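Can you make up a polypeptide sequence alongside its tokenized fold?
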Amino acid sequence: MGIVIRQSFKNTISTYLGFGIGAINTLFLYTYFLSDTYYGLVGFILSTANIMLPFMAFGVHNALIKFYSKYKTKNSLNSFLTLMLFLPLLIIIPTGIIGVFCYEMIASVLASENAIIYDYVWYIFIVAISMAYFEVFFAWSKTQLKTVYGNTMKEVFHRACVTLLLVAVYFDVLTVQQFITALVLVYVARMLLMMAYAFSVRLPVLKFYKLDDLSSIIKYALLIIVAGSVAMFILDIDKFMIGQMLKIENVAYYNVAIFIATVIAVPHRAMHQIMMPLTAQFLNGNQNDDLKDLYQRSSINLLVLGGLIFLLIVLNINELYALLQEQFRGGVFVVFIIGLAKLFDSSLGNNNAILFNSDYYRMVLVFGVVLAIMAVVLNILLIPIYGLEGSALATFLALVFYNIIKLVFVNRKFRMQPYSRKSLQVIGIIGLLIASFYYLEFPFHPILNIILKSLLLVVIYLVLIYRFNLSEDLKLQMKKYLEL
């Protein structure tokens, strides 16, 4: 776990920096500098582009990692990398042609509930392409076990740019319409910078030799398109459907709550970047003991870290919402229920990496289709009755069901599962601290309240984790910094 811990630590710092900037943008700058309608529009554009991302990438960002370590000669490896660079164009070019000739129809359908969307449909397409090729170039650098720069670009760059753009809107340097155009250009610039770094790590050599396992690569990529599309679909279908079923400003209100809950997934996102190529190496080399060790260690480490963030959010949520504008304060239930789903997801460790890089990757498609159908049906049923809370509940139920299926499947096929007695102890500590701290409030300003309660909570939580040795890797890291 040495390289995992080192790069995960650096990735966690950049991810938290990105989320810190994102918090300022999402909770304050967007809410004060843009109208609810335009904030909702930005959320809709980015969410829809995210749904399109795996489709535009042609599954290349996963295929790169899965197959890279299988090629041992320069000609075969360069031919494989050349294929990976050009494969997404098989989707992007026809999609663009369809968009040119069918724009009126597509825009009319998307803008049926909110007319403001009509003029911004091309923005969705451009952002989707930029996101897709960014992931391809990020995967290119991951194959060299280089993840820190890419993670910084993924988590920090565009959020820092958004901060500057929102300030420009506030000072009337940019109009809102110009802001949205500039936001699209930020995603294009991020893609180009990632490409430059990826090629500096390994310069492409264009070779067009036929690959022996070309059919396997194409089959995998096609399945990943659907499976990955389903995964992104689930992440953003709630915001998309809210934009289609309710007034678009509701996307803005929901986006604030979802952003807060998503902070729980930061350690998972950071560790995932290095776990994907390592898991592929262990699977390709039949290193089952190493794979099992990575599975269990990643699970307990992410449960401990995710549990701490879950506690900090849930126990400070009332004070945090007191700092926001009135119309954004109705998302406590959304934060709690989505937070639970994210914590469960984190506790699965590198479960996703095992499925995507094993011979059972086809099952990800099956599970994903079931999940997508379930999410859509639940959103259709629950949004009209419960509004934003109904959408959150639909997402929670779908994600929990999906994760249980993946957990059981990996256990049956690989005879390994991520949990242990220590997992139960961590869950017990989380429950105990929620019961002890939820009603604790200091008679101070909300910001001071958050700081005091958080400091007390972090100290108690880390002492308990350290005292009962619930994570050997994290204990070693704490010892290292305590000795400084």
In short: The radius of gyration is 22 Å. DSSP finds 20 helices and no strands in the chain.
